[in-house]
Amino acid sequence: MQTCDALLIGGGHNGLVCAAYLAASGLKVTVLERRGIVGGAAVTEEFHPGFRNSTASYTVSLLNPQVSADLRLREHGLRVVERPYANFLPLPDGSAFRLGGEAGMAELARRSPRDAQRLPEYHAMLDRVVAVLRVLMDRTPPNLSDRFVLADWLASWKVTRELRRLDMRGRRDLLDLFTKSAGELLDQWFECEPLKAALGWDSVVGNFASPWTPGSAYVLLHHVFGETNGKSGVWGHAIGGMGAITRAMAAECRARGVTILTDAPVAQLRMENGRAIGAVLEDGREFRARCVVSNLNPKLLYQRLVPQEAQPEELRERIVRYRCGSGTFRMNVALTELPDFTCAPGTALASHHQSGILIGPSLAYMERAYFDAKSREHNPGWAREPIVELVISSTLDDSLAPPGRHVASLFCQHVNPEVEGGWDAHRDTVAKLMIDTVDRVAPNFARSVLGWRALSPLDLEREFGLVGGDIFHGALGLDQMFSARPLLGQGNYRSALPGLYLCGSGTHPGGGVTGLPGRNAAREILRDLRAPARKGHRLQ
């Protein structure tokens, strides 16, 4: 039996971040990763001979700059380049809409002078709210339990103090963003449909919902927290793909003495007197630790790894109702040439090839895609006219493809997490639909495809533990956020069981490659180590 101070289950980015912070404090840390490489959903892999790309997560913005600095990611080779502008939308009338930069603003002014005036006001509104929420993302939520704990009372006071930084207008904006739909919010601000589509796309990313679903405005907000190279709200690309981020994290972990084991799937947690004390691998190897830290989706943790008899009955019932599921279908495609868009002809490299290319010209289009996938009226469970974001990574990073060739990421919505007959029977059909969807606006696309790899919601679950394809490890709804993420009583990264901690995206502040759940969880684990009087989670 191998022993350590902290045993991390899951070598995704949050697990690596947590391990690095714990090791920096002198703890002996071991990370167990089921797959043959670490990184979770933030990895770069070859998907066609000679072509590599980010397999699942594919773009950078939410990575916390303090985490990046603390883990010396730049020193370990991480380099992020910015997109020239945010979005390029081919439109049904044969024209195109560009969002971002001076050219984008000039085009918006031609379409709607009113919206061109209001867009800076909209961004200023988001910036005011985000400035406060960024502080709260770094904080441990107050844990709403049946016991009075001074630390939780102080945390509640600190939250109130931060929110008081917003004036009444800002508080009303915050309430709108947490409770309203993205469609309602954007309709109040703007009249230009392509603009609303470009902004509203973020509300359906990884969210199996209509843009008019109440609460979808927060999903939109969640995607604007980030920054690239110090520029707020800017999206970028990691040279070498998203795996460059997690390779750098793993390098820092090893520099701090962390043991990282791959091909090490956990069969079950080991319990002793109601306390988590380690884990048993599928191959029979055993590990014992002072604390166990899970980077898994909470459903996977409680339903597959924690012995059922060790869990309170209410926990077993609640975790069944923990909402997971995404409308996501993910593809990587190898291309002989760049797409030749009808609305912007030519295969020579242009700035629009380096942006987020969005096939989803209006919020109404996005709503139809959702209801088409949800209703299953005309097919087993996917939109006949899906939403596709196309990012041609090789236009920013020539290390991913052979000279003169390209790789494209297709991030597609909406598909139903559960389809008639199962996803294995329909994956190729839907992949062809996604290629044909791009081909409608760039007629050379289908014939330029050399090969592809598609990941259905089921594939995302099997390969990366994203239950129902949920990229956030749980829906971002009011009932599953802040102190209630994943459940009330576990919002402070401490599970329902002594000795077991949570550090994944199923905890505050949620999904995305941020590193914050891992960093915040490490802080609480170290707090318990230094203050052994904390009931239940004292580190032995």
What report would you give on this structure?
By secondary structure, the chain is an alpha/beta fold. The chain has helices at 13-24, 65-70, 101-111, 113-137, 150-163, 168-179, 182-189, 193-204, 216-222, 243-255, 298-305, 313-320, 363-375, 427-439, 457-464, 516-530, and strands at 2-9, 29-32, 44-48, 51-54, 80-82, 87-90, 96-99, 227-228, 231-232, 236-238, 259-261, 266-272, 275-281, 286-294, 329-335, 356-359, 382-391, 406-415, 449-455, 500-502. Strands 1, 2, 11, 12, 13, 14 and 20 form a 7-stranded mixed beta sheet that branches. Helix 6 packs across helix 9 (216-222), helix 7 (182-189) runs antiparallel to helix 8 and helix 7 (182-189) crosses helix 9. The two termini are 18 Å apart. The model has no long low-confidence stretch (mean pLDDT 92).
Fold blueprint:
Blueprint: E1 2-9, H1 13-24, E2 29-32, E3 44-48, E4 51-54, H2 65-70, E5 80-82, E6 87-90, E7 96-99, H3 101-111, H4 113-137, H5 150-163, H6 168-179, H7 182-189, H8 193-204, H9 216-222, E8 227-228, E9 231-232, E10 236-238, H10 243-255, E11 259-261, E12 266-272, E13 275-281, E14 286-294, H11 298-305, H12 313-320, E15 329-335, E16 356-359, H13 363-375, E17 382-391, E18 406-415, H14 427-439, E19 449-455, H15 457-464, E20 500-502, H16 516-530
Parallel strand pairs: 1-2, 1-14, 2-11, 6-16, 14-20
Antiparallel strand pairs: 3-4, 5-10, 6-7, 8-9, 12-13, 13-14, 15-18, 15-19, 16-17, 17-18
Helix pairs in contact: 1-10, 1-16, 3-4, 4-6, 6-9, 7-8, 7-9, 8-9
